[in-house]
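Worked example

This section walks through a single chain of length 161. The input is the sequence exactly as stored; nothing has been trimmed or padded.
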Amino acid sequence: MSYPKQVYFGDGGEVNAHFLPADPAPDVGETGRGMAIRYLASTDLTHGEFGLYRVMLAAKSGGPKTHYHRTISESFFILNGTVRLFNGEAWVDAREGDFLHVPQGGLHAFRNDSDTPAEMLLLFTPGAPREEFFEKVSKLGDATEGERAEFFDRHDQYFVD
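Given that input, the structure is written out below as tokens.
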């Protein structure tokens, strides 16, 4: 394994860091499943390298059904509370400090079955337009089956029964 291709060719570096204060206000409020999301490092900000999101789950909130992605990996890091994570074989109760990495093609799901809220970091690599996914997924209630299928296909979200 080697380092990636060089992308900065200047001399002396640049002032281009992005600081985001610890503001608890989510970028995407209630998504329809008791979930709120804060964009920490959007795909636009990272130029497609990754997307990092803080996910706040209400007590007894659901999550996506078992699914996989063909183009992106997804990683979960539990900040507090208990999040049920499906690792492709079994559901596990993940607690503060626990981590799950799911490569492309890996079956996974998550939800909060506990009586208390939970928070986690969600990392997608490489970056993908997940912001649009988060903002529009809860608005699919009136969509036709074809519109839903196109939306999930466009966002690399493939559900299994």
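What to look for: The chain has one domain: 35-159.
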